[in-house]
Every structure is written in C-alpha cells, then in structure tokens.
Amino acid sequence: MKPKRAADDGDLDDFFAAPGPARATSRADDDDEPRRRPGRAQDPDEKEEEPDEAREDEPADEDDEDLGDDLLGADGATPGGRRGRRGSRLKSVIAVLLSIAIIGGGGYLGFQKASQAWTSYRGVDYEGAGDESTSVPVTIREGMTITEIGDTLAADQVVASSRAFVRIANQDERSSSIHAGTYMMRQHMSARAALDLLLDPANLATNLITLREGLRDSEVFAQLSQTTGIPVSDFEAAAADPAALGLPDYAQGDVEGYLFPETYTYDPADTAADVLTKMIDQFKRIATEEDLAGRAAALGRSPHDVVVVASIIEKETTNFDYGPQIAEVFYNRLERNVKLQSDATVIYANNMTGRITTTDEERSVDSPYNTYTREGLPPGAISNPGQEALHSALNPASGDYMYFVAVNPDTGETKFAVTEEEHAANVAEFQAWCQDNADRCGE
After folding, report:
1. How far apart are CA 239 and CA 272, in angstroms?
2. How far is CA 418 from CA 26, 325, 368, in A?
3. What are the CB-based long-range contacts (under 8 Å, 24+) for 243-252?
4. Which NCBIfam families does the protein's record reference (predicted)?
5. Residue 441 is inside which H or E element, if any?
6. Are strands 181-185 and 136-140 parallel, antiparallel or unpaired?
7. Residue spans per domain, the chain
C-alpha cells in the first residue's frame, strides 16, 4: 500500500520515506482543501488563518494537548501562547530527538524506532480494511481505556498509530460499548475499519486456542485435540504427510520445531491438517521476518540446524536476555567438536517432563538426541520454539564462552564460563538452589 504524502511536515516525511510493508496516510490527507504551501503569495483579500482555533473540517485533537503537557510543561504553554509557535517548537524538538535515536540506535533498527515514534506523534492512518493475508488476535481487557486499546492495536500493527484510533473513537459515542474479549483482526487496517470491527460483538473470537512456547509435538496434539475435539490420531496422521501441510523442505519431513506457538482460531469444520497448516504458515511468516535462511547461511548453518538450536535454547532458559549467549556456547562447542551436553536434550530422549536436571542413568540412554553421548546437533528439534528463541539462535553473542548454567531457574539467572574451573563454581551455586528445590532436580 503506497500512502499519500501529508501536506505538512514535509521535511520529516521525506526523512522517514523508507520502504516498508505498508505506509500510512496523515490526517492532513483527509482535508477537503489543500493546505497552503510554504512560500505561496497570499492574496491581499485572503484572511489569515487563526492558529488557535481548530478548522471546521479538521476536528481538534485532544491528544495534542496531552502531548504538549508532557513535553512542554504542565500548562502546555510556550512563550507567546500561540499554537502555531508551539507546534513548530514541538516538531523541532521531535526532529532532534529522532535524529539522536537514529544515530544512537544502531542503523536500520534505530531508524525503525525513530520512524515509529514520528508516526505515533503525527497520528497517521492506514487506508482500507487491512492486509487479508494477516490474522492478528487482539485481546481487549475489561476496563481498558480508548487510548490503551489504541496502543494495543498500534503495537500489533493493526493500526498505524494509537492517536489515529483515539481520534476516530472519540468521534463515535459507541466506542464506550466495546466488549472485552479477543478479536481476530488484520494488520494495516484504517482506524475506522478497526473500530467498526471492534464495535460488532459478532467478531469476538470464540474458537481460540493458545499454544505456549516449548511444547513437544505430542503435547501440541493433546492440547489441540482437547480444544477442537479432533482425535489425537488425526493430528498424528496429518503430521505424517508434511508435504500436504506446506512444511519447508529443510525441515526434513518432521513437524517438530515448526508448529509455531501462537493464539489461533479454528472453525468447527477444520480438519487436523487445516489446524496444523495454520501453525506451519505462521512459522514461515516468522522465518521470513527473521530472515532465517539468510542469517543461517551467514552462520554457516542450515535453517534446520538453527531451528534445532532454537528448540534447545527454548528449553534451557526462561529469560531470553541470555538467549544469544546460550547460542554462543552451543555454536562454540559445535565448532570445536565438543559435545553439547544439554540436559534438555536428554530429558527429551527419555521422554520426561517436569524436570530440569538428569541422572547418570538418564544421561547414558542410547538415543541420537542424547548430546552427552553424541557429538553435534540432535537430528531434529526437541520442542516448538517461539520467536525469541529463534532470534537468539540466529543472533549469537560473540565470545569464547563454552559453558553455562542457570543458577536460579525460577528467575532464569544464568552464568557463563570459559573454563571448567569457572563453570564448576557456577554449578556449585546451582546445586545450592537444587537443595532447596529437590523435587525439580535429579540425583
């Protein structure tokens, strides 16, 4: 979708005119009359616009006052008290802040964040009913304000900005009757289209299932069966025909690792294959977003290798701030032909749940998934990882760490080491935690 250009703020619009999946239109685009361009000679008979009054064809935006209070002081006033001067100063401040964000934010990521901030400030809007290829579950909680709803929609890229939604909702008295619940929405919807959808209770999604990160296929099938009423055997049969599900070729015919954890809707008429296909399609969308193939190649790995690493990371930590460092350890060990020695893989090989450590007997099990006895990666994933784990596997930290241990599994606090001696000290800290949590630790 190519947007119209706003008639005002032209310099900053040009600054942020980067390619993207969709761009938005400005409130100015909806004006019935074009704004006067800078430098245009004014007819002697033409009256000067009063800057302090809202135009009849452009409703006043209450959020402008809120933003001014935040940036300019409690009274929102600037020297001289004129709205035009205030707006000019505000734009200058924002322009400087956004430039700093780009310089300090790191390349394109900094640019994206700065661009999103400018988009939010201006209250730009998309056009139309949204991207039909997308489906986003949006949950409206009891007691949410219109602004909070707008923030939620903008965060999920349903609308271009929270302010656009707030502006439209404030003009519609029915907005106070939005029902709490989950709605299936599209990305890149106009604020009007998004509000219309939320105002119709018929759009409340009732057939929903949420699958958390890190489940095995057997656990996924059991939950799907319990919710949909489709027998587990139907899901097992559907998984045995990966080509019909659209499974990527690099998955090597195994859906483990590729059933993406997310909230899904299902129709009572859906088959097991229909449900699994939705999950694999979502995996492929996330893989494209993360550039799985390209980044895997840069690491010297196949996409399947990265998914396997991600599935192990998913089970090894609850705090993904440590994810890139855990990935660093695994890749360093693989490059040096050192066994991974991941308890998570042994737990999978022994078909256990609810444990975070293993016994000597369990670590001796004869299985290609036992990374205590086998070098290299397991032949397949040990869980279905989420995006954070996948991102970590694609973006390992750079360093010489060869060991890690979660010294407090409750908080996810993890310590890393280069040498065995350093690691032994960290393990002692973990063992002290185990003494207080014996039911969760092995022998």
Report:
1. 9
2. 53, 12, 27
3. 244/273, 245/273, 245/276, 245/277, 245/280, 246/277, 246/280, 246/281, 246/284, 247/280, 248/284, 248/287, 248/303, 250/302, 250/303, 250/304, 251/304, 251/307, 252/304, 252/379, 252/380
4. endolytic transglycosylase MltG (TIGR00247)
5. none
6. antiparallel
7. 1-28+62-76+85-121, 136-203, 208-289, 301-440
- Residue 238 near residue 278, CB atoms below 8 Å: no
Contacts of 432 (CB under 8 A, 6+ apart): none
Q: Which two tokens stand for residue 363?
A: 């670590």
**Tokens coding 333:** 């060990």
Contact between residue 398 and residue 330 where contact means Cβ atoms under 8 Å apart: no
In the three-class reduction of DSSP (H, G, I as helix; E, B as strand; rest coil), residue 138 is classed as strand
Q: How far apart are CA 415 and CA 408, in angstroms?
A: 10
Assign domain 136-203 to its CATH architecture: 2-Layer Sandwich (3.30)
What separation, in Å, do the N-terminal and C-terminal C-alpha atoms of the chain show?
59
pLDDT tens per residue across all 443 residues of the chain:
433 333 334 444 444 444 443 434 443 344 433 333 333 334 434 444 444 433 334 444 444 434 333 322 333 333 333 334 444 555 555 555 555 555 544 454 454 555 555 555 556 889 899 988 888 889 888 789 999 999 999 999 999 999 999 999 999 999 988 988 889 899 999 999 999 999 998 888 878 888 999 999 999 999 999 999 999 999 999 999 999 999 999 999 999 999 999 988 888 889 999 999 999 999 999 999 999 999 999 999 999 999 999 999 999 999 999 999 999 999 999 999 999 999 999 999 999 988 888 999 999 999 999 999 999 999 999 999 999 999 999 999 999 999 999 999 989 999 999 999 999 999 999 999 998 888 778 65
**Residue that the structure tokens 């940036």 belong to:** 71
Tokens matching residue 238: 């559907």
The torsion region of residue 214 among left (phi > 0), alpha (psi -120 to 50) and beta comes to left
How far is residue 194 CA from its own chain's centroid?
A: 20
- Residue ranges of the alpha helices (H) in 134-178? 146-155, 162-170
Rg (CA), the chain: 27
Residue 112: both structure tokens together:
């994206």
Work out the angle at residue 140's Cα, subtended by the Cα atoms of residues 138 and 145, and round it to the nearest 5 degrees. 130
- Residue 404, SS3 per DSSP: strand
